[in-house]
Amino acid sequence: MNPESNLAKENLVLPKAETPAFDYLPLTMHNGVAYLAGQLAKVDGVLPNPGKVGRDIDEAEAGRQMELCALQSLSWLKHYLDGLGKVERVLHLNAYVSCTDDFEFISRIADHASRVYMVAFGGENGRHARSVLGMVRLPQNAPVMIDLRVALRG
């Protein structure tokens, strides 16, 4: 199973891995687990549509950006691991949504990221535990952000 081929069948394309704007590593590895730092939905270094979900951003746009966050995370995995074939399975996803107090659908937005991993790695390898958190504000006024942990093949 080739994760990039699986994504391509669903018209999902990995973007260029975005360089962090601050002093941290986008990914670290320890004892067979890769830990990805928070991923924003940047395109060519720019957040395409900043703001708060439920006020400035609608659910559909937030879902699109959540998908971009997931694809960005896969770009970093590919970059650091020299391909996605070393990913054994997705372990845990944290999905963050900057939203108004009355916005109820943060889990539906997170589903867009979860779907990317299930498409890429298939079945049980793509399914994962997850936490979904509504936030007051995210870095760079982003509407959504994720971080991720994946198990690596020995």
Descriptors:
154 residues; alpha+beta; 60s Ribosomal Protein L30, Chain: A; 5-stranded mixed sheet; 4 helices; 5 strands
Describe the structure.
Helices cover 32% and strands 25% of the residues. The chain has a 5-stranded mixed beta sheet with strand order 1-2-5-3-4. The chain has one domain (3-152): RutC-like (60s Ribosomal Protein L30, Chain: A, 2-Layer Sandwich). The protein has 4 helices and 5 strands, in the order αββαβααββ. It is globular, with a radius of gyration of 15 Å. A hairpin with a 2-residue loop joins strand 1 (27-30) and strand 2. With 154 residues, it is an alpha+beta fold.
H/E element sequence: HEEHEHHEE
Helical element count? 4
What is the number of independent domains?
1
Strand-residue proportion? 25-35%
Mean pLDDT: 96
State the end-to-end CA separation.
17 Å
> What does the overall shape look like?
globular
Rg result: 15 Å
Class computed from helices, strands and strand pairing: alpha+beta
Secondary structure layout:
Elements: H1 3-9, E1 27-30, E2 33-39, H2 59-81, E3 87-98, H3 106-121, H4 123-126, E4 129-135, E5 144-152
Parallel strand pairs: 3-4
Antiparallel strand pairs: 1-2, 2-5, 3-5
Helix pairs in contact: 1-3, 2-3
